[in-house]
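Lab notebook, page 48
Experiment: co-folding of the full assembly
Goal: obtain a model of how the components sit together before planning crosslinking
Operator: M.T.
Materials (sequences as entered):
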Amino acid sequence: MCDCQECEQFLQPYLDRQLTQAEVLEAETHLDECSYCRRAYHFEEKLRMYVRRAASEPMRPELKQKLAALRISL
Amino acid sequence: MSETTPDTDARRIAREARDRVRFEEEALDLADQVYRVARHMVNSREEAEDLVQEAYARAFRSWKQFTPGTNLRAWLLRILTNINIDRGRKLQRTPDMQSLEAGDYYLFEKLEDSGGEITDEERVDERLSQDSIVDALSEVPHDFRDVIVLVDIGDFSYAEAAQILDIPVGTVMSRLHRGRRILKRQLAEEAVADV
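Observation: model returned without errors.
Model output:
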């Protein structure tokens, strides 16, 4: 079983599904027993979704019209 | 037998016109997604709009270079990235990133230290504003930010991001991991300063 420091190292590759099965098991054994790391992992998951949403500024309709006007086939 | 007659020429021209219309329509359908990525590759909305327009103008001119059946979204982003590089941003030498990077728990620790335990039910926007995310992202150096924007915001795979940025897949992954840590460090500094 790993400690909190090692569990922190596993955070990104765990969520990216880049760990080996043995490493996943190591991380999950620690997560089962450590509420601090569990909270940190949950937070990271939610943060990723929030970044995606927060950074998604829609395109202005004016730009869409300008792009359509660049078409050569019309 | 292979000689072209006026009839086959006319057919070829008609087919080409049809292919071109289809290409342009498919490209325009992807404009929202292309813009979403462009918006965070540069620092202002105006710059992003300008970049997208130039990319589309170039794409429409060189549409025949696109191989039908391959990934049009990645092809468009590759054009856009090349224009952005030609415009003089980068190839900046990456400064010492170590100083910008902190551990993966850094932001979480700072938020819990300043505002108490983060429960599973709690929403991230109770601790971090949307503006703080956009501001922090703009502080991440370009090489790292481009990868975050493509993979985490644009939903491109590692392989697609590697193709668009013309770097190895391993570099995409290491920049993504380091970039996310830099982003969290920036967020921690902004968010905790606000409390």
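Interpretation: The radius of gyration of chain B is 22 Å.
Next step: discuss with group before ordering constructs.
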